[in-house]
Write a structure and sequence with these properties.
The chain is of the alpha/beta class and 215 residues long. Helices cover 45% and strands 16% of the residues. The longest helix is centred in the C-terminal third of the chain and has 17 residues. It binds 2'-deoxycytidine-5'-monophosphate. The site of 2'-deoxycytidine-5'-monophosphate has 13 residues, from α2, α3 and α7.
């Protein structure tokens, strides 16, 4: 992995990681991977299997060899040849993804895939544990953060049917699960640059990060 340009971006839901990472990767001309899509695809797979999250200790780890997740154009997610790009953002997946993301065998399997992708590539990778676990040697690490109010407002702007207090509660619940889980909890790596972007827009955030990377 040494020698490649690895940029890790972590942060809570709706902190702007994906938009920032995508634009940054585009401007630098390198790969982009949103690892949240992989956790969503796994959650969708297991929600449709007979296993529930309480039975996980009993599963044979070989099952992960049969789960093939591919991501094209940073948004088309294909699970075992089926396009699941839309359903991974359904309420069913939204409500369960933090729980499945806390399961050790799922994390181990996905971290391995993510490390393999980074092995031969310059890449911007976004998630919750990229700087701490997936790419601990990444040359650049950023942690994007902003207030719960701003994040709930952003969610509402993406979909005007959404209600502010509802979105705030949902984000807060996901934060609690992501931050307090036993394995790879959401937290900034000690050597990450923390970027609060309540009052900084997307282009300014990308510019700020790009300045650090290129100087
Ligand atoms: O970024 P997102 O909202 O699409 O992520 C979905 C869930 O996956 C979120 O609850 C946290 C989890 N996740 C994780 O635990 N580790 C990652 N590297 C990426 C996402």
């Amino acid at each position: 992995m040494k020698g490649n340009l690895h940029i890790a971006i972590d942060g809570p839901a709706a902190s702007g990681k994906t938009d920032t990472g995508k634009l940054l990767a585009e401007e630098l001309g390198i790969l982009f991977l949103d690892t949240g899509l992989m956790y969503r695809a796994m959650t969708y797979y297991f929600l449709n299997s007979k296993l529930d999250e309480n039975n996980f200790d009993l599963i044979n780890k070989d099952i992960f060899d049969d789960i093939n997740i591919e991501i094209f154009n940073n948004q088309n997610v294909i699970l075992n040849n089926i396009d699941i790009s839309k359903v991974i953002f359904s309420d069913d997946v939204n409500n369960k993804v933090s729980i499945y993301a806390g399961i050790k065998s799922i994390r181990e399997s996905l971290v391995k895939k993510q490390q393999l992708i980074a092995q031969d590539n310059d890449i911007v990778m976004v998630g919750r544990d990229i700087g701490t676990v997936v790419l601990p040697d990444a040359k650049f690490k950023f942690f994007l953060d902003c207030s719960l109010n701003t994040r709930a407002m952003r969610r509402m702007h993406q979909d005007d049917k959404k209600k502010f207090t509802n979105e705030k509660d949902k984000l807060n619940n996901r934060d609690l699960l992501d931050k307090n889980r036993e394995i790879s909890p959401l937290l900034p790596s000690e050597d990450a640059v923390i970027v609060f972007n309540d009052y900084v827009n997307l282009n300014e955030t990308v510019k700020l990060i790009k300045n650090i990377v290129l100087n």
